[in-house]
Design goal:
The chain is an all-alpha fold and 243 residues long. The protein has one domain. The chain has 10 helices and no strands. The N and C termini lie far apart (40 Å).
């Protein structure tokens, strides 16, 4: 006979698995719908090419700092504090990592927006059309700030995972894709493909950040800006993430 706690844990794992599987499935469907809407409203041309290039620099930043790797690395660190009845220290670690890496990401995003006119031609090798470059630069500057929402949201999702809360994190990719679709559908007739970029920014702000902030607050989030580069958990976080 299973111990009651073991049975509860298995039930939570099963529910989490179902939620995440449904999230992945629905995100794939909305991803296909996003591409269909883009093709229907914009077709193929210089604007669509510029739109594709506009996500290259943000994706680079995403893989460096804002990707799920960093938030996943934080889960065992935070969970260890919870298991040791040191939740206050867990939130201190949360505040430190979010402040330090968030500040670094903010600097990189601002630098990326300033240097976009130089970076985009390098990322779109072989495309020297001034109109294409101008469109790609403008759309890159729109999508870059979304990486801040992805990073902060990843940390907010991590504490929810550690507290065995999975529903709101599962909504992030769905809302993101729906934001892109809505942006293209509502703003496309007036702003063209640029509307999809504004939709991506809104989807990241709502799905990856605002909704996750609500979820984190529900599990008792305590945040205070702490720029402590000597915090031992910050070093442990970096060492765990590098591999």
């Amino acid at each position: 006979m299973n111990h009651p706690k073991e049975a509860e844990t298995l039930n939570k794992i099963g529910m989490a698995t179902i939620i995440m599987m449904a999230s992945v499935f629905l995100s794939r469907i909305t991803g296909v719908a996003r591409e269909m809407v883009l093709a229907a409203l914009a077709g193929a041309g210089i604007e669509v090419d510029a739109y594709r290039v506009a996500f290259v620099l943000p994706e680079i930043l995403n893989h460096i700092l804002a990707s799920g790797f960093l938030s996943v690395t934080f889960i065992p660190i935070f969970s260890r504090h919870l298991e040791g009845d040191r939740e206050h220290e867990g939130w201190r670690t949360f505040s430190t990592i979010l402040t330090v890496f968030g500040s670094l990401l903010l600097v990189l995003v601002v630098a990326g927006m300033i240097l976009a006119p130089m970076a985009v031609p390098l990322l779109a090798a072989g495309r020297d059309d001034p109109q294409f470059i101008a469109l790609a630069v403008r759309m890159t500057r729109i999508t870059l700030p979304a990486q801040i929402f992805f990073f902060a949201g990843g940390m907010l999702m991590a504490v929810q995972y550690a507290k065995t809360r999975f529903l709101l994190p599962a909504l992030a990719p769905l809302v993101y894709n729906l934001g892109i679709i809505a942006g293209g559908w509502l703003l496309g007739p007036r702003w063209g493909v640029e509307g999809f970029c504004w939709g991506a920014l809104a989807g990241a702000a709502i799905g990856s950040f605002a909704i996750q902030l609500v979820g984190a607050m529900r599990v008792g989030m305590r945040f205070c800006p702490l720029f402590d580069v000597r915090h031992p958990d910050l070093r442990r976080y970096i060492f765990l993430t590098l591999p």
